[in-house]
Specification:
Layout (H helix, E strand, L loop, with lengths): L17 H12 L3 E5 L6 H14 L3 E6 L6 H12 L3 H10 L13 H10 L6 H13 L5 E6 L1 H12 L3 H17 L5 E5 L4 H7 L9 E5 L5 H14 L3 E2 L3 H9 L4 H17 L4 E2 L1 H12 L5 H14 L5 H13 L5 H11 L6 H14 L3 E4 L2 E4 L2 H11 L6 H13 L1
Length: about 425
Amino acid sequence: MNSATGRWVSGDDFFDRKRELQILETRVRDRNHVLLTGQRRMGKTSIVRELGRRLEADGWIFLFADVEGATSAEDVITEIARAAHPVRSIASRFAAAMKRFINENFEEITAIEFGVKIRAGLNEGNWRHHGEQMFNVCANQDRPVLLVIDELPIFLKRMLQQDENAHRVDQFLSWLRGVLQKLGDGAPVLIVSGSIGLEPLVRRIGIPDRINHLYPYRLGPWDLDTSVKCFNRLAESYAFTVKDGVAEAVYNALGIGIPHHVQSFFARLRDFATMHGRDLVKLNDVDHVYRNELLGPSGQSNLVHYETRLKEGLEDESYPIAMEILAEAAVQEVFTSDARHSLGRMYSRLVDDAPSRIADILEVLEHDGYLKLVNGGYRFESRMLKDWWSSRFRDHHIPILRRDTYSDSSERA
């Protein structure tokens, strides 16, 4: 088993998730379209890749289209076509339908070149027609097709920001639902996934029914036992000796079994031991590496990733409010209802309907795994994520209640 700290994994490197795979496979084989959700770094891409690999071995066609960089519906259709390029029975028929733009044999051009030519033939007036052609071609295969569209919510959020209204988002989602419903059980089975939440997005813009054909399935964290087994399997693979209690201490330091974080912690401990000329990881190494590596400068790239994804999932006016909430929850250990009301009063001077906006932000923060409502207050689920945020803001974060009190006093003066 290889250590993986930034890439999706499959095959021998894919660890556990037997029950989750069984549920997803059953849903897919029963021709259900799926919305795969889960917080950051939970392994959503890895599990759909592994599911696709296993279904391919059983005769399915597996297409994986990453649309994170897409800015239009035309781009999405292009990415699906690019994903289909290796499948001759799909690509050749779709190329024939667009023969005006693809003159040469599609087998003589690369997937990238294929995508460029497809994109050149798509525009605002014809993407629906050609997109439906692609789905029809997939539906008429002699083998079932699983199509994964990854990072669809990021694409939709980008399109929403470009237009400053929900028209094109509504248009695209309505078209996608209509095509799948028209094809019925013969349609390719669709899995939609992403690192920001689709459900909060469509609710926020008032079109939640556009995704009611997708069966929601949330991928949760590993428990203690699974996290420990993964850590010890990695140690065995690299011939590292691990003292008793190390794997459990790693889980306790993290606070939650996010697969990427377990992998990252192992990699840091292995590097630390190697730098000290040993193949042994000791119990006191865990705290040292946690504080000086994972929370240190070299670990801050993970925090940047969380911030970037958060910014992509929120409106520009909501992002600074979200950062206030996270800073408060990290430094004060909890974002209380009193702090929530005070924050609403403070921001009502800057944005319309601040309390409603805060409610929407908290829904996103819960959905995407930053915070969890516990005993009347919002707290970080991940200890490491809380400590990351705290290390950044603790020296200059003024508690919200104190700032609100100061603001009231200033106004009275």
